[in-house]
Amino acid sequence: MVLRRVAEAMTAMNGELAAGDAEVRWSAAVLDSRKVGGGELFFALPGEASDGHRFVAQALARGAAAAVVSQAVEAPPGATLVRVADTYAGLHALTRSVRESVPKQLVGITGSVGKTTTKELLAGMLGRRFRVAKSPGNLNNLYGFPLALLGAPDDTEWMVAELGMSTPGELREISRLARPDVAVFTSIQPVHLEFFGSIEAIAEAKAELLEGLAPDGLIVANVDDPQVERIVRRYAATQPVRVVWFGSGAGAEVTAARLETMAEGAGSSFELRFGDLRQPIELPLLGRHNVENFLAAAACALTLGVSGEDIAAAAALAQPAAGRGVVHRLRRGVTLVDDSYNSNPTAVRRALAAAALIPAKRHWAVLGDMLELGETAPALHRESGAEAARLGFSPVFGVGALARNLVEGAGAEGEWCENAAVAAERAIGELQEGDLVLVKGSRGVGLEVVVQALRNAVAGRGGPR
User: Do 117 and 137 touch, CB atoms closer than 8 A?
Assistant: First the structure.
């Protein structure tokens, strides 16, 4: 557990003790008073909807060690308060200070898809040899990454951090906070088009990860992705970095050979190749796209000295993150693929292809709006609906306003639902013995409601009709 003195944090943030004891120790940082478990440093950040200063007393009452504020607040007697000019700037100043010594080294992972899975795989691999910390969940932005780093134990040898962005310049700032020793690029796809306009612009924003890369750093990059290849080769042409390429195309150093789908479509088996290494791998993650995520992680781990045997052992223990391709085997032969955490056109295509390989009497899907696609949204939704119908999914429920276009693309197989609640009711009525159901949509659609409704229905009524 991290135990750092408030006095040291106060110095890093150029703050002053407003109340309490500067010798109090804190274990992590938190921005949400509801997530205080005891011992944290609570940052009262201003916000458009709510100001964290309103919840200082609540955070301290729940056990926060101290609170960082920029204005006078009510607090319990004896509470420790640190006053700074700007709490958001203070959070970043403290992050920069801690990063001087913790962790010893850091891997930053970015891309449009696959970041979280690659992070989890890599943390498992590096953990076979090193003391490893990883960013919890998807704490990957200018608010989340500092929390992840400030919670890393002092003896961390490698931290594996997922780093994301939604606007230009954001990843540059995160990279300067993180100062990665290794930069991993998964794949760059047409997401966030509402804010960037083109995939080339998205690639340039992802390239900002290299702003904070160590001078003698390592880049692990997807040779099969033309945008990744473009930005990495451009950078490597002027900087003394090592680049390790993974994938299946020409120039790939880390590859998968003899690729096969495991029984019941539950994962992939293949041979990991890197130089003279020929390591058999069984990866219990759904879909060929997860082989790509595995190769990204393996390329990094191998380069950092992890053995093929340890990588294979870590792969065998891999589990999908919640809502990211979790396969539920339910009663009466029903298979529910929960990919409800988020969505974009590439991810939908990959999820459909993976689910289609799982044997079932019928394949059907509940697909929600894909958000932040800008003017391209209608066409991309139609393409996704058409792809679902082409792969044999019937019916295809489209959920949300944009999904009207998805239903149009699915043709006779498509059925539209206004929201997740309506979709859940329709899905329960549709379910039959031996079905496979794929559920996928952007976070704003809330399709976890559909997943839970289907699980409850099967468990509660003895199975589908």
Answer: no
CA-based max dimension of the chain: 68
pLDDT tens-digit map of 379-431: 999 999 999 999 999 999 999 999 999 999 999 999 999 999 999 999 999 99
DSSP symbol at 452: H
Q: Cα–Cα distance between 463 and 132 in angstroms, integer?
A: 43
For 348-373, give the DSSP string.
Answer: HHHHHHHHHTS--SEEEEEEE---S-
User: DSSP secondary-structure letter at 243?
Assistant: E
Helices of type H across 100-225: 115-126, 144-150, 170-178, 193-196, 199-206
Q: Which value, to the nearest 10 degrees, does the dihedral of the CA atoms of residues 92, 95, 99, 101 take?
A: 140
Q: Of 172, 160, 173, which Cα lies nearest the Cα of 220?
A: 160
CB contact at 8 A, 317 and 127: no
Please give the Cα distance from 392 to 419 (Å, whole number).
24
Average pLDDT over residues 258-274: 91
Claim: this prediction has a pTM higher than 0.85: yes
Q: List Cβ<8 Å contacts ≥24 apart for 69-73.
A: 69/18, 69/44, 70/44, 70/46, 73/44
Q: CA angle 148-154-155, nearest 5°?
A: 115
Length of the chain: 465
